[in-house]
Structures are given as structure tokens and as C-alpha cells.
UniProtKB/TrEMBL annotation:
<dbReference type="InterPro" id="IPR050147">
    <property type="entry name" value="Ser/Thr_Dehydratase"/>
</dbReference>
<dbReference type="Pfam" id="PF03551">
    <property type="entry name" value="PadR"/>
</dbReference>
<dbReference type="GO" id="GO:0009097">
    <property type="term" value="P:isoleucine biosynthetic process"/>
</dbReference>
<dbReference type="InterPro" id="IPR036388">
    <property type="entry name" value="WH-like_DNA-bd_sf"/>
</dbReference>
<dbReference type="InterPro" id="IPR005149">
    <property type="entry name" value="Tscrpt_reg_PadR_N"/>
</dbReference>
<keyword id="KW-0663">Pyridoxal phosphate</keyword>
<dbReference type="GO" id="GO:0003941">
    <property type="term" value="F:L-serine ammonia-lyase activity"/>
</dbReference>
<dbReference type="InterPro" id="IPR001926">
    <property type="entry name" value="TrpB-like_PALP"/>
</dbReference>
<dbReference type="GO" id="GO:0004794">
    <property type="term" value="F:threonine deaminase activity"/>
</dbReference>
<dbReference type="InterPro" id="IPR011991">
    <property type="entry name" value="ArsR-like_HTH"/>
</dbReference>
<dbReference type="Pfam" id="PF00291">
    <property type="entry name" value="PALP"/>
</dbReference>
<dbReference type="InterPro" id="IPR036390">
    <property type="entry name" value="WH_DNA-bd_sf"/>
</dbReference>
<dbReference type="InterPro" id="IPR036052">
    <property type="entry name" value="TrpB-like_PALP_sf"/>
</dbReference>
<feature type="domain" description="HTH arsR-type">
    <location>
        <begin position="368"/>
        <end position="445"/>
    </location>
</feature>
<dbReference type="GO" id="GO:0006567">
    <property type="term" value="P:L-threonine catabolic process"/>
</dbReference>
<protein>
    <submittedName>
        <fullName>Threonine synthase</fullName>
        <ecNumber>4.2.3.1</ecNumber>
    </submittedName>
</protein>
<dbReference type="GO" id="GO:0003700">
    <property type="term" value="F:DNA-binding transcription factor activity"/>
</dbReference>
Length: 445
């Protein structure tokens, strides 16, 4: 085996699942025999993730949909700014996001251990990727996705035949649930926070950037931090094999509303609220420490982007001919901010990573207007006065409704993030409006 993972502290060997830390607490790292790798041989091979096979795990059989090898496009926007700006268009991957790089490696690697199938905790893109690659491999896929998720991603997961388990409000809450499911059902877990092997696929993004551009700066939308860290690891390996002398500066972009990683870099108060850039809604990222190491070791920085800048970002990318999801669009306002602060030099080569397609859909509040019918609206109005429990709401509605139907409405309103449990008294569960529910009710008049 060319890839070997041995704990540097206690010597324990890992090959099946590779968690971020050994059971003794030491951090695990996947490494290769770098002296034997000649990166200049890659250019004679077909483009794609497996072009870099010397720096990928050995697998029994490659499960591939021709992922990676995505185009790098010069941004017109750069001309206006007087900078060299390029867009790495990851929407061109088979399922429309960079996560296909993870899925091809993790599924190929896990095949021998996945008789019962695969599982992933994801806020959408990795779930869609797993669904596609598990289908390709003829194995079942289980996806643990949060309540807040774009409809397009759900459609994609369902169409590709994966099972969906809705759990938690943001993706990090589903990680241990997926671990439990993997253990209980004997599934191979490809969640990057539980198994580092998929990041080996994601790091090929760095190899492609090196081959096409040799960037000085890489601007990366950052939710869980796993993409940022994999790109960092890719460049560390390029240094190891003698291809690169200096690491490009890695710049993490987060939403002002959910900023656990960027706030740490910038020394601001971190927030953990839902953002329209849903794929960046990771409240307490497991890989935060690794992401911070990547930013600091590369000499990079972080940028925060406001909700009102997301549409601008999306529009400016559309002007380049690229339709990106909000979570990817943050890179444009981030670039503009840094340019305004004169962060860049004239001959810098700046790469923007567009991680995922806009076709995956928005999570818009207006969409809810179609699913919140009369009874739900009445319930919201009741709860705008005070917290109430189920039976009390049923009585107050004064409608020929079954008691169970009211509970169903409450569950749905809760899953839409419009109401929440406020407290319990004995066996009574009291519900009240969330901030979102309150805003929703206002817009409904
Ligand atoms: Zn150990």
C-alpha cells in the first residue's frame, strides 16, 4: 500500500476509516512516499481526479463519473479591478459541485467495506455526490441532511435513489447521527469529519490550480472548512514533491451570520445563525482547527460577507456566464473587499473557487408561502401572542380537525424553522414563534 496511516504517537494503524484523530487523541495525517512522485508526469494523462493517482489511496476499483479536470476561466471582473482573477468552475463536476472529488475517492476506497451501503452527513452537496457514486457502484446510500436545505439538492438526492434522513438544523449536528447509523447498519461512512479519506480526492483541486495557474491567492467559500483544508494539504504535498516553493495564501470566506472560522481569524464576535448561503451554515465545524491551521500556515486571511451582498455576488458571477449557488457567490464580494483594501499586488494570480451550481436551488422564504396553508397560518397567529401547547392550540383553532392533525402541522412548522419548543411543563410541550416565524408572519400581513 502506498498510503499508510500510522499514529505517530501510539503506532495504531488505520486503513478502513481514517478519523481526524487517533483513539489516543493524536491527530492523524495521510501521507505517501513523496520521493517517488514526479508531478511533471501528470500532464500526459487524462484530466480528472485520478490523474494524480500516486497521491491517492490504492483502491480495489475506481468508481468514477469523470470528476475533476474542471475549467479555469479568466474573470472579466479582474480587468476592471486591474488584477489577474481566475474562476475555478467546480459546477462542471458530474453532480454540480466539488464534492464529487470526495465521493469518487471515498466510495472507491470504501467499496470493500460497504456491502450494506454508504452513509454521509451533509448539507446537500456531499449527499448528492454520494447518491450518484453509490448508484454508480450499485450500493445503497443513506444521507443525513439538516432541516434547512435547498430543494434542488433534495430533488437531486431523491432522483439518484438515496435515502434521506432529516436530522438537526445545521449539518454538524448530523455527524454523530451518521456515525451511529454507520455502526448500526454496517455502512461505510464517507462524512469528511469522520473519515479523512475523501479529502484526498478534494485536494486534487490544488493540483489542478497548480497545473493551470500557479496561484498566489486562493479564495474559498468556507462552511465546514474541509475544502479549505484539503486545498491546503494539496499544496503542502506539491511542496513535498518539489513542484511548488511557496504556498499560495488561502482566504476563507464566511457569511457574517455564521462565522465560526472567519471570526477567529479576524478577532470578531462569532455568529451561528442561518444564512441564505445555506451550504455555509455550519455552526460548530469539527474541522475548525485544521482550517485555521491552513489559513495561518499559508499566510492567508478571512473575509465576512453580508446577506445583502449574496445577490450581488451571484449577479457578478452570472455576468461571467457562471450560475453559482449563494454559498459560492460569497467569493465575489470577498474579492471586491480585499481589492478595495489594496490587499493584492498587480501581478498576483488570484483563483476564486466556485464550489457549487446555482441549479441546486435557493432556500427562499417566499417558497414557504406555497406550503404554509390556512391552518398553519392560524397556528402562527395564535403563537404570536404567547407560547401554547398542542391541546390548547387545537381548542383555540375551533375547527373540525383531528387533534393529530394539529400535531402534524406543529411538526412541519417546526421543521420549517418557523416555530420552536419554548419550554415544558409536566408532559405539556409549549411552542412559540422563532425569529424567522415572526418575520414570516409580518410578510404575510
Ligand atoms: Zn494514537
Amino acid at each position: 500500500m502506498k498510503m499508510k496511516i500510522r499514529c505517530p504517537s501510539c503506532g495504531r494503524l488505520y486503513s478502513f476509516l481514517i478519523p481526524p484523530r487517533c483513539s489516543c487523541g493524536e491527530r492523524l495525517e495521510i501521507s505517501y512516499d513523496y520521493e517517488k512522485v514526479d508531478p511533471f508526469r501528470w500532464r500526459n494523462r487524462e484530466p480528472g481526479v485520478w490523474r494524480y493517482r500516486e497521491l491517492l489511496p490504492d483502491v480495489p476499483e475506481v468508481v468514477s463519473l469523470r470528476e475533476g479536470g474542471t475549467p479555469l476561466i479568466r474573470a472579466k471582473l479582474g480587468r476592471e479591478l486591474g488584477l489577474n482573477v481566475f474562476i475555478k468552475d467546480e459546477t462542471r463536476n458530474p453532480t454540480g459541485s466539488f464534492r464529487d472529488r470526495l465521493a469518487t475517492v471515498a466510495v472507491s476506497h470504501g467499496m470493500l467495506h460497504a456491502e450494506n451501503g454508504f452513509v454521509v452527513a451533509s448539507n446537500g452537496n456531499a449527499a448528492a455526490s454520494l447518491a450518484a457514486y453509490a448508484a454508480r457502484a450499485g450500493r445503497p446510500a443513506y444521507t443525513v441532511v439538516p432541516k434547512l436545505i435547498e430543494q434542488g439538492k433534495l430533488n437531486q438526492i431523491v432522483a439518484l435513489g438515496a435515502k434521506i434522513i432529516r436530522y438537526g438544523e445545521s449539518v454538524d449536528e448530523g455527524i454523530s447521527y451518521a456515525e451511529g447509523l454507520a455502526e448500526g447498519k454496517g455502512l461505510y461512512n464517507v462524512t469528511p469529519e469522520s473519515n479523512l479519506v475523501g479529502l484526498e480526492g478534494q485536494k486534487t483541486l490544488a493540483f489542478e490550480l497548480w497545473e493551470d495557474l500557479k496561484p498566489t491567492h486562493v479564495i474559498i467559500p468556507t462552511g465546514s472548512g474541509s475544502n479549505l483544508y484539503s486545498i491546503y494539504k494539496g499544496f503542502v504535498e506539491l511542496i513535498e514533491v518539489g513542484a511548488v516553493e511557496e504556498m499560495p495564501k488561502l482566504i476563507a470566506v464566511q457569511a457574517e451570520k455564521c462565522s465560526p472560522i472567519a471570526s477567529e481569524v479576524l478577532g470578531t464576535e462569532p455568529k451561528a445563525e442561518p444564512t441564505k448561503a445555506l451550504a455555509l451554515y455550519v455552526k460548530s465545524p469539527v474541522m475548525k482547527e485544521l482550517a485555521l491551521e491552513a489559513i495561518h500556515a499559508s499566510g492567508g486571511t478571512a473575509v465576512l460577507v453580508g446577506e445583502d451582498e449574496l445577490d450581488l455576488g451571484q449577479r457578478l458571477l452570472a455576468g461571467e456566464g457562471i450560475f453559482a449557488e449563494y454559498a459560492s457567490s460569497v467569493i465575489v464580494p470577498a474579492l471586491l473587499k480585499l481589492a478595495e483594501e489594496n490587499y493584492f499586488e498587480r501581478d498576483d494570480r488570484i483563483a476564486l473557487i466556485v464550489t457549487s451550481s446555482g441549479l441546486k436551488g435557493h432556500y427562499s422564504e417566499s417558497r414557504e408561502k406555497f406550503t404554509v396553508g390556512g391552518t398553519k397560518l392560524e397556528i402562527l397567529r395564535l403563537l404570536s401572542g404567547r407560547s401554547m401547547y398542542g391541546y390548547e392550540i387545537w381548542e383555540a383553532l375551533e375547527k373540525p380537525l383531528k387533534y393529530q392533525a394539529v400535531y402534524q402541522h406543529l411538526r412541519e412548522l417546526e421543521s420549517m424553522g418557523l416555530i420552536e419548543e419554548t419550554h415544558r411543563r409536566g408532559r405539556r410541550v409549549y411552542y412559540g414563534l422563532t425569529e424567522r416565524g415572526r418575520r414570516f408572519l409580518e410578510t404575510m400581513g
